[in-house]
Predict the 3D structure of the following.
Amino acid sequence: MTLTPSRRRPATAALAMAGALLLAACGSQLDAADVAAVSGSTGTSTSSSAESLLEAPVGSDGDVGVVDEGAVPESGDVAGAPPPVDSGTSSGPASPADGQGQDPDEATPPASGGESGDVDAAPCDGFDNDQPGVTSSTITLANASDVSGPVPGIFEAARQGTRAYVAYFNATQDLCGHDIKLLELDSRADAGADQQAYARACAETFAAVGSMSAFDSGGAKTAQECGLPDLRSTTVNPERVRCSTCFSAQSVNPGQIPKAMPTYFLDQFSAQTKKVALLYINAGAAPVNAASFKKGWESVGWTIPYFQAIDVAEFNFAPYVQQMKDRGIEIVYYLGPYQNTIKVQQAMKQQGFTPDIYLQDSTIYDQKYVEQAGDLAEGSYAYSNVALFTDSSNKEMALYRAWLEQTNPGADPNFYGLYAWSAARLFLEQAVALGGDLDRASMVKALGGVKDWTSNGLHSPQDVGGKTTGKCQKIIRYTGGTWKQVSKGDYLCGTLVNTGVGA
């Protein structure tokens, strides 16, 4: 059975190449004590773990119990999904002024997926129903994200974004006569749980889509050995990057640093970039990323006289602030969870230390950070590779937000959820284009050829198949109660620095 013409909606063909920022991985949403509980850290490590990675030359250019699942109705529809939308609807609701919340009464999902062309549906002749996760009427995909565990809901947004797109897809089309079901697995911020989740995904589902885990190294070998296509929200550990069947909507290579962000600050705040503090949480992939950041940024022209790990069990940030004051630091960059971002900012305020610039990645482009930081958030900078949540002119952003509200009422748009939506779109577009030739091997091959993927302008171009860090970023700042873009144009794009760290 081919794609039903009356239910077909516009979508992009897969493109790709990119602008990705490197994440703090396990630090991205975890509180310090919680990370310690997960990783078994005693809090005695020092920054030498990252400093030992700085020798490479800079390039030119456990038992965890049963894995939880969220059941999906047998019909294949995600709970809470609306019926098929009218084809005449072309745009979503306008985003609220603060870019974070949304009026549920204004959240009717638009039918259009963006401004790019349709995906051509391949003939479905010969479609094989005798594959893992496939029946005569449904195809089951897995999403394995950190939801429970030490910090409930840390990456629930990735599950929510995937769920939202699956609901949109089922309401607007089908895949060779099949509806899509979603098996929701919990990787619980634990490598062992991630491995168990992927063992189930291998046996019970066709592929994994939109997953996000702080310890994504756990299931990498399992996914590769069973040939499972795994298109994640974001990959954060080198083991997952090396997995031959694993990809991510946000392409990331820890050893590649975009010049766009450091060049912007070098141009705008030259003097301040000579007195930079780079603080990072001493857990997970953060030390690798921090070491790569340091080499990459210094090669552009920054000077980082204070490079310091903060142990996962640390709650006294005063000594770090004093060190920054003693060194005359003017830019503070923190790589870690937004909860600890707030602790750093609180300690700076208590000691009367006001650097010219406080900077972080998209971890703080989150309503939870704004709510918990309060006045401390004012003036903070972040760099990002996604469209602003407030951009009402972006049809794909309106579509994501509307279906997020329909399937997860009250959920805020989120960086990880946005890339999970993007991953689900890319996967299902590729599946539709394969038609009767769809199997695990053909999907892996198709994903390996994806270049310049933007999900209809939802984010900067991503080299999904090449697993190469993107070159494009934008600079945003929280001021006057909202995030505003301060860099010019859509994105700032430049070359990459090959640091040789974590590659």
Notes: DSSP finds 14 helices and 16 strands in the chain. The first strand starts at residue 69 and ends at 70.
